[in-house]
Amino acid sequence: MKLLPDGRLYRALVLGAAAVVLGLGGYFLVAWLVTDDTGCAHGVEKRGTKSECTGVTDGGFHFTEALAPVFGRIKAENDSIADKSPATVALMIPMISDNPAEQHEFTEQVQGAYLAQYRANHQANGQRPPIRLLLANPGRNYEFWEPVAQQLADAATSPTENLRAVTGINISLKETEKAIAFLTAGKGIPVVAGPMTADDIMNSAARPHAYPGLARVAPSNSDQAAALGSFGSDIKPAETMVVEDVRQDDNYLTTLRQAFEKLAKGAPHAPETFRSPADFNDEGNLSNDFHQMVPDICSSDAKTIYFAGRPVQLRQFLIELGRRNCAKHYTVISGSHASTLTVDTKFQDQWGSLTAGSGITVRYAALAHPDSWSGDGPETPGGSRRAYKELADLATLFGNTSATGIGRTSLSDSRTIITYDSVTTAISGIRNDTVGKVEMPTLDEVANSWLRLHGGNRVNGAGGWICLDQYGNPYNKAVAIVHLDPVTKSAAFDRLAWPAGRAPDANCSIRTGG
To answer: What is the pTM (predicted TM-score) of this model?
Structure first.
């Protein structure tokens, strides 16, 4: 019995229908591949409205062309130790930005991380385990922190990945705070923050276990303010004014406002306020606000202005203040993020704002500076000339555009130094627990190692001693007070200052009550 008819016509119809089905299937397959392919590379996916690549890589994929040289060196270093049971450290920072100054800083931070990895693997007397470096890009302002942090959590539980610490956290935002809480309290992964300075993303006496396993290497905003206060002890509160950004959901701004309001206690005028855009790199129309603000500043008795704001807004403010009609000299004091002005392309032709009229002195607390520990005189307690020289020599060795270089390097704006110290601190914790029969410390062992990084076990950072207190915070960390030099268009070193008002003793003893 035949269920289907015979004949050329039938066979032609069947073949034609099959071709249509295959053709449509191929079309939809191609369309799906074109519209839904979110892969950039292994571990890296396109996310967000801009379809930008975010995720975790071992250096085999670079997020921007500027990162290609240093990513290439990290990939080569990782491959060279792949069969030597390495411990993994991740650098978690945004690596994409439309702001050239911010992209420059991201590149410097990756360079600092590589130099720390290289030193650990080649200049540490064969200490084990060797260090593998992962590069985690959570997107602009940590927008996609959650899936990227989950990738790192997976690496921490993998017996082949052996992730033992996350480093580099660099921007004090609510998203950063969530990422750190997820990694530490949620997943038990030790974190060593880099340029992050907000006072409310840390463990403290009031919240000792808020972020278990979190360590920090940069002085907080309040520590910076204390050091600035020590440096400027002759500043009269009656001659001060605070100009502050009142935007919420930015931990850096919130705690810097609080620190500067405390320094200016007794000022005769209430703070002048503004509100920056949600994206602090957005220019907005704040130049108009600052233009209207300047006459009120001129009519006041203020000589010193504490500016609690991000770099874009600081630039806009300085340009408008430089156009003032009053014949007064002003000192503008800000936090560590002011260092961005030294690499801000939009400020390059505006340095004259600082010399217009009677001039403006812009002073801020830098997280580190090359001149802090590079002099020839007696070495001050609180830092190590040798540690700084080790970094400087590595930056000279690799800071070029040759096949083995990582691109041009600079240590002047602190980002390379502080990230190098962040990664070095993580490596110290890992290796301090790799003793006896221990070949790979557990996550808990690494987190607990922060409790011993003080006194004789301190980390001799390139930016100063790192002596962690019982909460994982750097005790009395050296603060480089600098000012912007309109002649050299760079940050000029004034002197070191200390949050405790004095340098630490030779053993970096942590005193009760500060």
So the answer is: 0.91
77 pLDDT more than 50: yes
- Under 8 Å between Cβ of 261 and 237: no
Quote the Cα angle for 139-472-233, to 5°: 95
Of 463, 470, 302, 457, nearest in space to 373 by CA: 463
Task: Name the β-bridge partners of 166.
Answer: 90, 191
In the beta sheet, which residues pair with residue 464? 461
- The one-character DSSP state at 459 is E
Residue ranges and CATH numbers for the domains of the chain are: 47-218+381-475 (3.40.50.2300), 223-366 (3.40.50.2300)
Task: For 333-362, write each residue's pLDDT tens digit.
Answer: 999 999 999 999 999 999 999 999 999 999
Residue 382 corresponds to which tokens in the numbers above? 């609180």
Nearby residues of 343 by Cβ (< 8 Å), 6 or more positions away? 100, 101, 104, 105, 413
> Following DSSP, what letter does each residue of 346-401 receive, concatenated?
TTTT-GGGGTSTT-EEEEEEES--GGGS--SSPPPTT--HHHHHHHHHHHHHH-SS
What does the pLDDT look like over 463-480, one tens digit per residue? 999 999 999 999 999 999
Tell me the pairing of strands 163-167 and 191-193.
Answer: parallel
Q: Where are the beta strands (DSSP E) in 108-248?
A: 131-137, 163-167, 191-193, 214-216, 240-245
Tens of pLDDT, residue by residue over 228-276, are 999 999 999 999 999 999 999 999 999 999 999 999 999 999 999 999 9
> Residue 375 pLDDT > 90, yes or no?
no
Laid out side by side, the sheet with 330-334 consists of 272-274, 240-245, 304-308, 330-334, 360-366, 479-485, 490-497
CA distances from 292 to 224, 320, 346, 351, 474 (A): 29, 9, 21, 21, 40
The torsion defined by the Cα of 252, 256, 257 and 260, in degrees rounded to 10, comes to: -170
pLDDT, residue 83, reads 96
